[in-house]
Amino acid sequence: MDFPGKHYLVSLFRRRKGLLFRFLATTVATSLLSMAAILLIREFLDGVLGNGGGMAAWVASAFGPTAALWFVATLLIATYVASSLVTFDNQVTQQRIVKVLELGMMEKLIRHILGLSVPFFDRQSHGDIIQAIRTDVSQLRTVVLAMARFVLNTCMVVALFGAALLLSVRLTLWSLVVLPLAVIPIVLTARRILARSFAVRRTGYVLYDVILQLLQGIRVIKVFQGEDAEANAAVEKGRAYFDQLIEMVRVRSLASVYLGSLSGLGIVVVIVVGGFDVMNGRLEWPSLLAFLMALRSIHGPLNQVNATYVTVKNNAAAVQRIGEILDARPEVVDVPGARPLEGKPRTVRFDEVSFSYGDEQVLERVSFEVDAGETIGIVGPSGAGKTTLLNLIARFYDPSSGRVLLDGRDLRDIRLSDLYDRIAVVTQDPFLFSASVADNIAFGRDGASREEIVAAARAAGIDEEILALPNGYDTLIGIGGHGLSGGQAQRVSIARALLKDAPILLLDEATSSLDSISEVRVQKAIDRLMEGRTTFIVAHRLSTLRNAGKLVVLDAGRVAGVGSHDDLLRTCPLYARLYGAQNVAVQADDAGPGASGRPIPITAIG
User: Fold this and answer.
1) Residue 595 clears pLDDT 50, i.e. is over it
2) With contact defined as beta carbons under 8 Å apart, do 498 and 451 qualify?
3) Residues 506, 390: contact at Cβ < 8 Å?
4) What percent of the chain has pLDDT over 90?
């Protein structure tokens, strides 16, 4: 049976061939024991009726009829016991196979996703990715168990048909009359189930997205009293999901009804034909009874084969999605011949750089140069391309045209690992892991000692506040810094960047979401972090740019001006206009009651 993504499953078992062999051996043994049980029942009935021929007759001639019956009965019991033990081992082996598969596929999927480039995540729904890692992998487990049952039941059908042929070739042929009719519901059902499986998966990850939205936007929902509207939207998505599930079950159940009816028809045909054969002396009663038992036993595995096929189709969307993700390739990779980067970069230069998100032009022919240790501020209206510029330095994306150069070398000619070793990032929303404070600071610096972690925290001005936590540096914090204030989380993020000690620093709105007191503390930590580093700063607040030796003004993706603050006031009308707008805002704030003197966020500059 074929299904998408099977080559990834095969790769997981290349080192576990013994496990697969054990499953196949127990499967064959179970099938042969089932076949033997049917034939032994015929032997036992022949012995009871005193019919000549067969193993029972041979034992009866040597040891007497009673001994023959006990001998065959003992063999039959031994067969059932052995079959039970082998079936037990087969089922345990199936679960071990599934463990190898599910854990291995989850690891493969997570490692592969982490290895993909940033553009992949820009295009994907978070709910879709979560569903792939957790739900789809679990459904893959179902598929593999179904495949194992398919192999087992197919072997059972073959063995039981073999027993039926030994009992009566004529009845076996008659029992096959209805078999072609059984293929029809399998094919038709599988097609409808396949279509439903994609619908179920699509409505499923849409529901995931809605739930993630509820969790992330709970504060906005509360303030704007949107509980009812959001609850109704979530319930509506849930209703669509469960409607698709019900429809899938309905289609599967109809197929089961059809197959059950055909199974009954097959038994009736055998009873009628076999009855006439017994009446006419062409068949013995023991053989007819044993044949009916064999036929009845065949129907179970046959139905399971159908159910297995439907199960595979039922989960085809999940398996296909896993295959699609694993087939995805990073868009930003080391080019052939990429060379290592030696030492600290002395210059960073943009050379006629243009970049587009699809058809949307974001940067156009941007050119400027920064020397080592220099601090450069990136300013301009919203949507001017400031954050995109930082993303190109970190090589999260490659330019559509032009080059970003380190010491005259195109970033694409430098190994990514070497580039990332030399870059640290501090963003507006500090990302912290669900781990201890110490682990968060040490992230990206394997083997950092506790003394180095504490030194970085002190430099970031967060050491005393960490020690005040319940378990100090070993205090567990939630994803995104849950359990810390915004300013504390940002200074932990700065401590992480300090510990990495990278020569290039990217600051993207690092203080824009903080209150005045937190901003002062974070700004002091940033000032320490910037010392001796080549720093690129994107900021809403001019206070963050006070140490910038050079400013680059972007307007609709183009460079409108490059120079110092004083130079740009004289030569760049856009910068002068933005600066003037900020001064007006500051004066208006200072003149009002309760003026705090806090730097004013300038939307035009951010």
Assistant:
1) no
2) no
3) yes
4) 5
Q: How many Cα atoms within 13 Å fall on the side-chain side of residue 103?
A: 7
CA distance 255 to 243: 19
Q: Look at strands 375-379 and 550-555 and give their pairing.
A: parallel
Q: Rounded distance, CA 45 to CA 37, Å?
A: 12
Model pLDDT, residue 594: 43
* CA angle centred on 208, ends 205 and 211, rounded to 5°: 155
d(CA 160, CA 38): 8
How crowded is the C-beta side of 285, counted as CA atoms within 13 Å? 9
DSSP character for 332?
S
In this prediction, residues 99-109 reach a mean pLDDT of 80
Give the closest residue to 568 by CA, choosing from 588, 586, 550. Answer: 550
Three-state DSSP state, 433: coil
The Cα–Cα gap between 325 and 8 comes to: 11
Cα 445 from Cα 457, distance rounded (Å)? 14
Q: How many of the other CB atoms lie within 10 Å of CB of 478? A: 12
Looking at residue 543, its pLDDT comes to 54
Give the Cα separation of 90 and 528 in Å (integer).
Answer: 64
- Rounded to whole angstroms, the Cα distance separating 349 from 340 reads 18
Query: Could you write out the DSSP letters of every residue in 508-542?
Result: ESTTTTS-HHHHHHHHHHHHHHHTTSEEEEE-SSG
Tell me if residue 549 falls in helix, strand or coil: coil
> Which secondary-structure segment (H or E) carries 251?
helix 227-279
Q: Per residue in 223-232, pLDDT tens? A: 667 778 778 8
Q: Tell me the C-alpha distance between 535 and 375, whole Å.
A: 5
Mean pLDDT score across all residues of the chain: 77
pTM of the model: 0.65
Confidence grade of residue 257 (pLDDT, cut at 50, 70, 90) = low
Q: How far is CA 280 from CA 72, 277, 283, in A?
A: 28, 5, 8
Q: 525 or 462: which carries more pLDDT confidence? A: 462
Residue pair 271/137 in contact (Cβ under 8 Å)? The answer is no
pLDDT band at 179 (very low <50, low <70, confident <90, very high): low
Give the CA dihedral 425, 428, 431, 436, nearest 10 degrees. 90
Structural tokens at position 83: 């079959």
CB 579 within 8 A of CB 561: no
Q: How far apart are CA 360 and CA 217, in angstroms?
A: 28
Return d(Cα 42, Cα 291) in angstroms, integer: 9
Q: Hunting for tokens 């529901």 — which residue is that? A: 207
Average pLDDT over residues 46-62: 61
Beta bridge partners of 360: 357
The answer on pLDDT for 482 being more than 80 is no
